[in-house]
Structures are given as C-alpha cells and as structure tokens.
Amino acid sequence: MLSQNKGFTAQLESSLLAQRWRALAPRERLSLASLAGFLVLVLLYVMLWQPTQQRLLAARASFEAQRELNAYLHSQAPAARTLASAPQASVDPARLQGLVTATAAAQGLSIERLDNAGDGALQLNLQPAPFAQLLRWFTMLQAQGVQIAEAGLDRAADNQVAARLSLKVAQ
Could you tell me the pTM of the whole model? Predict the structure, then answer.
C-alpha cells in the first residue's frame, strides 16, 4: 500500500499539470486556488442548496393549498350535513336516463357511453371535464333524487377528470 502511494505521488509530481503549477508565481497560484474555491462554492449552491430551497418552497405552497382545502371542507361540513339529512326529490326510474342526459348536457358534460344495468341503474362514462363542473353536476343529480352508487375518477390532461359512474334512483 505504501509503495502504491509513493508511486502515485511520484507520478503526480512528474505530471505536466504539477510542473505547470510549480512554474506559476505564488500570486498566480493564490488566484487560481481562490478561483477553484469560488467555483466549488458555486457548484455546491447550484447542485445542493438551490434545489433544496425550491423543493421547500413547493412543499410550503402545497401545504398552504391543503390547509385552505381543509378549512373550506370544515366550513362546508354543516351545509353537507344539512343536505344529507334533507329529504330528496324522487325521480321515476323510467325517467332516469333522460334526466341524466339532460342535466349532463346542461352542465356542458359529454357522455361517451351509457348502458342500462339490470337493477334499474345506469352505467356511464364521461369525457374528461373540469372537476368543479363534475361536482356541480353531482350536486344537481343528488338534489333531483339520483344517487351515485359507484364512481371511478381518472385524471386526464389539462387538469381534467374522466369519470365512470353507476347511477340509480335514491331510495
């Protein structure tokens, strides 16, 4: 091991770079060493500190968004409880398909596929739409006595959601 270190040191001392370094004036050596130190600091900042700070800012923004959502949900909880306990309108099962297609069109939603299930339920797929638009439609359906038995939501491009739903008349 010691002989390897001596060989490496001897090779380093005889290298062209070491010879050029020894040929420099002390002032030039100091300038190059200072420049190298500055470049190391810049690389540390760019490679470590700056990405960490950016992730921290993104995490703080996400936390604030989640806190606002939590506050909104807590503020809307009494209204949701009132709606849940309020008697719902009843819709005729034979009119369910017409009601669903009419309200979807009124909300600007496009139905890709609509199937009647054997138990009087409707299976439907919606084209991607903004989530807020879907929520308004869900609220409208619930107010008219339609229950969402099953829902599958998939994120689509441009902050939109594609939905697969099973709807039935509320009991």
Answer: 0.49
